[in-house]
From TrEMBL, chain A:
Belongs to the CPA3 antiporters (TC 2.A.63) subunit C family. The lineage of its organism: Bacteria, Pseudomonadati, Pseudomonadota, Alphaproteobacteria, Rhodobacterales. It holds the Pfam family Oxidored_q2. The keyword Cell membrane applies. This is Multisubunit potassium/proton antiporter, PhaC subunit. Keywords: Cell membrane, Membrane, Transmembrane, Transmembrane helix.
Automatic annotation (TrEMBL), chain B:
It is a multi-pass membrane protein. Its main location: membrane. NDH-1 shuttles electrons from NADH, via FMN and iron-sulfur (Fe-S) centers, to quinones in the respiratory chain. The immediate electron acceptor for the enzyme in this species is believed to be ubiquinone. Couples the redox reaction to proton translocation (for every two electrons transferred, four hydrogen ions are translocated across the cytoplasmic membrane), and thus conserves the redox energy in a proton gradient. This is Multisubunit potassium/proton antiporter, PhaA subunit /multisubunit potassium/proton antiporter, PhaB subunit. It comes from the Bacteria. Residues 126-409 form the NADH:quinone oxidoreductase/Mrp antiporter transmembrane domain. Signal peptide: none annotated. InterPro entries: CPA3_Na-H_Antiporter_A, MnhB, MrpA_C/MbhD, MrpA_C/MbhE, ND/Mrp_TM, Proton_antipo_N. It comes from Gemmobacter aquatilis. It is found in: Cell membrane; Membrane. GO terms for cellular component: plasma membrane. Coiled coil: none annotated. Residues 790-912 form the Na+/H+ antiporter MnhB subunit-related protein domain. Residues 604-669 form the MrpA C-terminal/MbhD domain.
C-alpha cells in the first residue's frame, strides 16, 4: 500500500511539474492543481497510512490514525481552491487584456 | 508614565489624525497635539527623579535569544532630547495647523509627523542598541515621507530620495558598528555597554567599530563630507524643516555621539576624526550659508555649521566641552526652530523667500521682525541672548585645546556666522520698503506666530537667567553623558583675561566687516567654480541605478516558464545534496496490505494522471481527467481513515471543476503544440526527477516509524475531555488549533476579495473590457439553455441540500462534517441554481451579499475568540456543556460550534464570490442567457395557446 501511495504522489508531482513548464496558462493551472493534490497527499501520508481506523473517538475502536496531518490538509484543500481561483482570474485577466494566453512575455511585446 | 509608553504614544497617536481629519482640520490638529502633550506630561513627571540622578527603566524581553530587548531608559540626556522632541513637536503641530494650505492633506501630514516623533523618541529612550537601530531606521523612513510630503514637487521627491540614500547608507554602516560594539561588550544593552569602556577601547575592533558608528552619526547629522543632503531636504514644507533640522533628525547623530561618548571618546582616533569633521563642517557650512539667497537654504547651511560646532565639542573629549555641547544643543534648537518658522511666515506672506527680492519688511511685519531679530541675534552670538552664552563657552574650550589652529578656525566660523545672521536680519527686514514684493506682506495671524514667539521668549529667558531656566537641564544631560555629576557655571562675564571675550569681539567685528563686503564677495563667489554636490551625487547614483536596471532586466525578463524551470531545477539540485548525505534504504516499518479495491483506485489515478499529460492539448478532456484524479484522491482519503478529508476533497473538486469550466468558456479550447522536442525531453526529464524525489521521500517516510513521539496522542486523549467533541480532526480545527484556522479563513476571504477586485478591474474601461464587449463565442450554444428537468430537479433539491448542509455542520464536532464541508456543500447547492436557472434568476433571489458573508464569518470567528476574554480566559479558549430541553434528548452546546459557524460563513461567501465573479464576466460578454430571469411559470404560460 505504501508503494502505491508513494508512486501516486510521485507521478502526480511529475505530471504537475511537466505541466507548469508548458507555455500556456491553462496547463499551468492544471499543473498547479496536480501539485496541490500531490502535496496534500504527501502531508497526509506523513502521518503514516492506516486503513479503517478514522480519528473519531468511540468506545469500540481499538486504535486511531494520526489526526494532526488530516487537520492540516483539510484547510490546505480549501485554501488551494482559493489560490487556484485567484490564478484562474489572473490568467483570464491576462488573456482578456493581451489577447493571448502565453505565460511568457514575447520579445516584441516588450516596450 | 513608563519610558516605553512615552515612546509608544506617538505611534499610537499616529492612527488618530488620519481618522479625525474627517471631523475637520482643527480636530485633527488638536488630537495630534493632545497626544504629544500627554507624552510631554508623562515625561515631565519624571523630571524630579531624573534630576536626583535616577535612571527610569522599562524592561521588556522581546527576543532575548538575540540580545534584542525592548528596554527603555530615561536619564538626563534622554530627558533633554525627549523634551526637545516633544516640546518643539508640540509647537510644530500648532504652527503646521495654520501653515498648511487647505489643498494639503493634513491628516497624512500629522500621521507622518507622529511616526517620526515616535521614532525619534525611541532613539533617545532606547536602552538596547539593537532596538535603537530599529528606531534609527524608522527615522530615516518617516523623514523620507515628511521631506517628500509635497509629492507634486520634483525637488521634494529628489530631496527625500537623497536624504534616504545618504542616511540609509550611514544607517547600514552603523548597524555593523553597533554589532561589533555589542560583541566586544558581550551585551546589546546600553547600560552594560556603557560600563565596558576599557574592554572596548582596548579591543582590536575599536577602530572599525568607531568608524562605522561615526559614519552613521555623520550622515544623519550632515557632517562633512555628507553635509550635502540637508539643504536639498529643504524642499519639505517649512514645519518639517523646522522640526527635522532644529530639534530632531539631524540631532540624532549628535545624540548618538553623546550617548556613546563615555565608551568611545577620549582616544586620539576619536579626537582627530570627530574634531576635524566638526571643525571643517562648521567653517564650510557657515561660508556657504553666507552666499545663499534663499532664506531656508541659508538656515540649512547655518544648521550644518552649528551641528559641526557641537560635533567638534564632543570631539574634544573633555567633560567641560561635552557640557557646552549639551547647552548649545538646547540653545540651537530654540533659535533655529524659531528662525525656520519665521522663514516660513515670510514665504507665506510675501510669497518668496529670496533675500534679494526682500528687504524693508520691518514696518510691514513688526511682530515677525521682532521674533526674527531676537532669534537671529542669538544665532550670531550677541549678548545677552542664549546663543552668546554657549558660543562663548565653545570658544573658550576651543582656545584651550591644542593645536592653536582649532581656536583660530573656531573664531573664523563664529565670525562668518555673525555675518550671515546679520545678513538674514538686515537684508530681509531692514532697508527701504520695496514696492515689488510678489505679494503684499503683513503679519500673519496669532496661530502662525505664536510658536516662534514662544521660542524667542525662551531665547531671551535662557539668555537672561541661564542658571535658573536651563542650568539644571544641562547639568542632568551633561551628567548622563560624562557619567559624573556635572555643575554648569554659565555666566555672561568671565573677565578680561578670558580669551573667549577677545575671540567673540573679533568675531562680531569681523562679521560686520564681512557683511559690508558682501556684495563684492558675492560676485566673486558666483564667478568661482564650485563643486556641485547634487551633480556629484547624481553622477554616483546614475551608474548604480543603471546597474540595478540592467540586473533586473536580465533576471526578470517576464519569462515565467524560465523562472519556474530554474526554481524547480534549483530545488532538485539542493535536494540532491541532502539526498547524498542520508541513507537510501527503505525503512523497516511493516507495510500495509494491498486490497484489490485499493489497487483498482490506484490504477485509475495513475492512468488518469498519464492521460492528463498525453491529452493536455484538449482542454475540456484535461478537465475531465483531472476530475478523475481528484475523485480518486478523495476515495483514497476515505479508504485511508480520513472521512473529513474525503468529504472536503470531493466538494472542493466540484467547485474547482465548475470554476475551470467557467474560465474555459473564455479561454481557447485547445493548447497549441509549440514546444520543440528537445524542450519536451528536457521538461520530462526534470519532471521525472522531481516526481522520483518526492515519491521516494514519502516512501522512505512511510516505511519508518515516527522519529519523535507524535503529538497525535495528546489530541486523541484530550479531544473529548477538553474540546468536548469526538471528531478529533474537527476539534483540532476549531479548538486546539483554532487560531490557525482563524488565519486560514481570513486568507480565504482575502483571496475571494482579490478575485472580486480583479473582476472589477477587468470590467472597468480597458482592453479586457473592450474584448468582452465584442465577444463572439467560438462554440455553439447548447440546444436547451435551461433543461426543464434540471431546473425542476435543482429547485426541488435546494431545501434538501441546505438541510444536508446544516446537518453536516451540526454533527461536525462529533462525526465527520463541520464548517468547511458544510460551507462547500451549501455553495454547491447554490451554484446549481445558477447553472440550472441562470444568473439573472438566481441573482434576483439572492438577498445576501457575498462580501457580507465573508466579513460576517471572520467577525463571528473573531468574536467567539474574544468572548473567552470575558470569561477571564486567553483568546479562543473554548467551553462546552450538555443540556437537556424537553422533548429533545440531551445535546451539546460548544463555543467551538459558534467558531465553526464563522468558518462556514466565510467558506460559503468566498466560494460564491469567486464563482459569481466569473459569471459577471460572462454577462459583460453579452451572454443574454444569464441576464434574463428564467421562470418556469412564464415559460409554461408562453407555451399555452
Amino acid at each position: 500500500m505504501e508503494l502505491l501511495v508513494a508512486s501516486a504522489v510521485g507521478l502526480m508531482t511529475a505530471v504537475g511539474i511537466y505541466l507548469i513548464l508548458r507555455l500556456r496558462i491553462f496547463p499551468v493551472i492544471v499543473g498547479l492543481s496536480m501539485i496541490s493534490y500531490a502535496c496534500n497527499v504527501f502531508i497526509f501520508a506523513s502521518g503514516r497510512i492506516v486503513p479503517g481506523l478514522p480519528p473519531i473517538l468511540s468506545k469500540t475502536a481499538v486504535a486511531y490514525t494520526d489526526p494532526v496531518p488530516q487537520a492540516l490538509v483539510l484547510t490546505a484543500i480549501v485554501i488551494s481552491f482559493g489560490m487556484t481561483a485567484v490564478i484562474v482570474m489572473m490568467g483570464l485577466g491576462a488573456f482578456l487584456s493581451a489577447g493571448d494566453d502565453r505565460i511568457d512575455l514575447s520579445e516584441d511585446s516588450e516596450e | 508614565m513608563s519610558p516605553a509608553l512615552i515612546a509608544a504614544l506617538p505611534f499610537l497617536g499616529a492612527l488618530l489624525p488620519g481618522l479625525l481629519i474627517r471631523a475637520g482640520r482643527n480636530a485633527c490638529a488638536t488630537v495630534t497635539g493632545f497626544v504629544t502633550l500627554l507624552a510631554l506630561i508623562g515625561l515631565g513627571l519624571h523630571i524630579p527623579a531624573v534630576l536626583r540622578g535616577e535612571v527610569i527603566r522599562t524592561q521588556i524581553d522581546w527576543l532575548p535569544a538575540l540580545g534584542l530587548n525592548a528596554n527603555f531608559m530615561l536619564d538626563g540626556l534622554g530627558l533633554l532630547f525627549a523634551g526637545l522632541i516633544l516640546g518643539i513637536g508640540l509647537l510644530i503641530i500648532l504652527y503646521a495647523r495654520f501653515y498648511l494650505s487647505p489643498r494639503d492633506p493634513m491628516g497624512q501630514f500629522y500621521t507622518y509627523l507622529m511616526l517620526f516623533q515616535g521614532a525619534m523618541l525611541g532613539i533617545v529612550l532606547s536602552d538596547n542598541i539593537l532596538l535603537l537601530l530599529v528606531f534609527w531606521e524608522l527615522t530615516s523612513l518617516s523623514s523620507f515621507l515628511l521631506i517628500g510630503y509635497w509629492k507634486h514637487l520634483p525637488e521634494g521627491r529628489q530631496g527625500a530620495r537623497m536624504a534616504l540614500a545618504v542616511t540609509g547608507a550611514g544607517g547600514l554602516a552603523m548597524i555593523a558598528g553597533m554589532l561589533i560594539l555589542g560583541q566586544i561588550a558581550g551585551s546589546y544593552d546600553l547600560s552594560d555597554i556603557l560600563q565596558a569602556r576599557d574592554a572596548i577601547q582596548a579591543s582590536d575592533w575599536y577602530l572599525p567599530a568607531l568608524i562605522l558608528i561615526l559614519l552613521g552619526a555623520f550622515t544623519k547629522s550632515a557632517q562633512f563630507p555628507f553635509h550635502f543632503w540637508l539643504p536639498h531636504a529643504m524642499a519639505a514644507p517649512t514645519p518639517v524643516s523646522a522640526y527635522l533640522h532644529s530639534a530632531t533628525m539631524v540631532k540624532a547623530g549628535i545624540f548618538l555621539m553623546a550617548r556613546l561618548w563615555p565608551v568611545l571618546a577620549g582616544t586620539p582616533e576619536w579626537f582627530w576624526i570627530v574634531t576635524s569633521a566638526g571643525l571643517i563642517t562648521m567653517v564650510l557650512g557657515a561660508v556657504i550659508g553666507l552666499f545663499k539667497d534663499d532664506l531656508k537654504a541659508l538656515l540649512a547651511f547655518s544648521t550644518v555649521s552649528h551641528l559641526g560646532l557641537i560635533t567638534m565639542l564632543l570631539g574634544f573629549g573633555t567633560k567641560a566641552a561635552a557640557m557646552v555641547a549639551m547647552f548649545h544643543i538646547l540653545n540651537h534648537a530654540t533659535f533655529k526652530a524659531a528662525l525656520f518658522m519665521v522663514a516660513g511666515i515670510v514665504d507665506h506672506e510675501a510669497h518668496t523667500r529670496d533675500i534679494k527680492r526682500l528687504g524693508g519688511l520691518r514696518r510691514l511685519m513688526p511682530v515677525t521682525f521682532t521674533i526674527a531679530t531676537l532669534a537671529g541675534l542669538s544665532m550670531a552670538g550677541i549678548p545677552p541672548l542664549n546663543g552668546f552664552l554657549s558660543k562663548e563657552m565653545m570658544l573658550e574650550q576651543a582656545a584651550h585645546t591644542p593645536p592653536g589652529l582649532i581656536g583660530l578656525l573656531a573664531t573664523l566660523g563664529a565670525l562668518v556666522s555673525v555675518a550671515y545672521s546679520f545678513r538674514l536680519i538686515a537684508h530681509t527686514f531692514l532697508g527701504p520698503q520695496r514696492t515689488d514684493y510678489p505679494h503684499k506682506p503683513h503679519d500673519p495671524g496669532f496661530g502662525l506666530w505664536a510658536a516662534p514667539a514662544l521660542l524667542a521668549g525662551l531665547v531671551v529667558a535662557i539668555g537672561l537667567m541661564p542658571m535658573t531656566v536651563a542650568g539644571w537641564l544641562v547639568d542632568a544631560a551633561a551628567g548622563a553623558v560624562t557619567g559624573t555629576a556635572a555643575h554648569a557655571h554659565i555666566a555672561h562675564w568671565h573677565g578680561l583675561a578670558n580669551p573667549a571675550l577677545w575671540m567673540s569681539l573679533a568675531a562680531i567685528g569681523g562679521g560686520l566687516v564681512l557683511l559690508g563686503l558682501h556684495p563684492t564677495l558675492d560676485r566673486l563667489w558666483t564667478a568661482l567654480p564650485r563643486p556641485e554636490a547634487k551633480r556629484i551625487f547624481d553622477g554616483l547614483m546614475e551608474p548604480l541605478a543603471a546597474l540595478s536596471r540592467h540586473l533586473t532586466a536580465a533576471l526578470h525578463p517576464g519569462m515565467l516558464s524560465r523562472y519556474l524551470w530554474i526554481a524547480t531545477a534549483t530545488i532538485i539540485i539542493v535536494s540532491y545534496y541532502a539526498f547524498r548525505s542520508g541513507s537510501h534504504l527503505p525503512g523497516a516499518r511493516a507495510l500495509t496490505e494491498v486490497e484489490p479495491i485499493a489497487a483498482i483506485g490506484w490504477l485509475l489515478l495513475m492512468a488518469a494522471s498519464v492521460a492528463v499529460v498525453l491529452c493536455h492539448h484538449q482542454r475540456l478532456l484535461t478537465l475531465i481527467l483531472i476530475a478523475v484524479v481528484g475523485l480518486m484522491v478523495s476515495v483514497g482519503f476515505a479508504y485511508l481513515s480520513a472521512p473529513d478529508l474525503a468529504l472536503t476533497q470531493i466538494s472542493v473538486e466540484v467547485v474547482t471543476v465548475i470554476l475551470l469550466l467557467l474560465a474555459l468558456n473564455f479561454l481557447p479550447k485547445t493548447t497549441p503544440r509549440e514546444s520543440s522536442v528537445p524542450r519536451k525531453v528536457r521538461d520530462l526529464g526534470l519532471a521525472a526527477l522531481g516526481g522520483l524525489a518526492v515519491g521516494g521521500l514519502i516512501y522512505a517516510l512511510m516505511t519508518r516509524d515516527f522519529a519523535f513521539p507524535s503529538i497525535a496522542d495528546y489530541h486523541l486523549a484530550n479531544s473529548k475531555t477538553l474540546g468536548g467533541g469526538t471528531n478529533v480532526v474537527n476539534v483540532i480545527l476549531v479548538d486546539f488549533r483554532g487560531y490557525d484556522t482563524f488565519g486560514e479563513i481570513t486568507v480565504l476571504g482575502i483571496a475571494a476579495l482579490l478575485i472580486f477586485a480583479l473582476t472589477e478591474s477587468l470590467l472597468s474601461p480597458g482592453a479586457a473590457n473592450d474584448r468582452l464587449r465584442g465577444w463572439v463565442s467560438d462554440t455553439p450554444d447548447a440546444g436547451d439553455r435551461h433543461p426543464l428537468m434540471m431546473v425542476v430537479a435543482t429547485r426541488m433539491m435546494l431545501p434538501i441540500a441546505l438541510m444536508v448542509g446544516i446537518y453536516i455542520f451540526l454533527r461536525g464536532h462529533n462525526v465527520p462534517g463541520g464548517g468547511f464541508i458544510a460551507g462547500l456543500v451549501v455553495a454547491i447547492a447554490l451554484v446549481m441554481q445558477y447553472m440550472a436557472s441562470g444568473f439573472g434568476w438566481t441573482a434576483a433571489r439572492q438577498r445576501i451579499d457575498y462580501h457580507g458573508l465573508i466579513g460576517a464569518g471572520v467577525l463571528v470567528a473573531a468574536a467567539t475568540g474574544i468572548g473567552s476574554w470575558f470569561a477571564g480566559r486567553p483568546f479562543m479558549t473554548s467551553n462546552y456543556g450538555y443540556f437537556e430541553i424537553w422533548p429533545l434528548e440531551e445535546f451539546e452546546l460548544a463555543t467551538a460550534a459558534l467558531f465553526d459557524l464563522g468558518v462556514f460563513l466565510t467558506v460559503l461567501g468566498a466560494v460564491m464570490l469567486a464563482l459569481s465573479s466569473l459569471t459577471r464576466l460572462a454577462v459583460r460578454a453579452g451572454q443574454t442567457v444569464n441576464t434574463e430571469a428564467f421562470d418556469m411559470q412564464s415559460e409554461l404560460e408562453a407555451e399555452e395557446p
